[in-house]
Amino acid sequence: MCLTVSGAFLLGIVMASTYTNIGFEKQGTGENANSWGDITNTNFDMIDEAIAGIYAISSSATSQTITAPSDGTANQSTRFATYQYSGSPSGAVTVTLPGSVKKVINVINGYSQNITFQVGTNATTATVYANSSGIIHTDGVNSVHSLSEGAANQLRYNGTTKAEAVSGGVDVTGILNVSSNIVGSGTLAAGNTTITGTTDITGDLDVDNININGNAITSTDTNGDITITPNGTGSVVLDGNNFPQGQGSSNQVLITNGSGQLSWGSASSALGNNLSLSGGSGWSISVDGSNNLVFTYGSSTVAKIATNGAITSENDISAFGSV
Length: 323
Hints:
Layout: E1 18-19, E2 25-26, H1 36-52, E3 54-58, E4 63-65, E5 82-86, E6 93-96, E7 103-109, E8 115-118, E9 126-128, E10 132-138, E11 144-149, E12 154-157, E13 160-166, E14 169-172, E15 176-178, E16 182-185, E17 193-195, E18 199-202, E19 204-207, E20 210-213, E21 216-219, E22 237-238, E23 241-242, E24 252-256, E25 262-266, H2 267-271, E26 274-276, E27 283-287, E28 293-297, E29 300-305, E30 311-313
Parallel strand pairs: 3-5, 4-6, 5-7, 6-8, 15-17, 16-18
Antiparallel strand pairs: 1-2, 7-10, 8-9, 10-11, 12-13, 13-14, 19-20, 20-21, 22-23, 24-25, 26-27, 27-28, 28-29, 29-30
């Protein structure tokens, strides 16, 4: 018996492998019949590298180039998730990333210099600042974008650390705006600080040359004054006493009205016509209606000096004797 077949007899079609953006092999239909498992395992290794691998880059060059990972090949460090830089470059570092590779990269910058990442025509670049870390994304064409900036313990703006968690608390650089209560323990050293709310500080507070500690306000400036100046017609109030505005006149003294208001006045108006000596002596000196100076002990007048200098005593006057 004879079998005749006209035209093509198609036994099967074998498709060639293709590769993803970062080199994973996508096996074609009917391909790699005896090595499919090995290739799949290699792909899993590459996935692991792309998710968790760390590429340690020890270089002090200021111009560096990252090459594209080889297709279908594991252990390609440029495919790794994180690039960790160490070294001592003399200036800012520029890293050129491979074209046609789209990738998110974690960057740990151990340099004391900034690292700028670029690709293609450098339409957009991303900078990870000195001694910092960040996350970048390259589109594999002309742009690298910064997705984050700073270390985990830092708040940064345009490469400048504005706040940093340290062993003793938080260091803030710049203006600190707070709209709630601040409770602190230790030393508060601040520049421009705007606080709305209550601030409780345990310890001392240094403001310029003024130290506030407990119940003491001290000038730390050598021979420095402490100036207290109210606004407008306001008064300086100490322990309920309102001090007068202005400096008063020569030879004036402070006089109280007994209700917390102090004012400037002459010594005579402050003393009136009577002077009582302290110490429980019982002596007082007054001026009578004729302007005589009257000396009183207890409730008894004992002597008087007239305006012409005449001295009158209720008892003998000893011109000479022991005192």
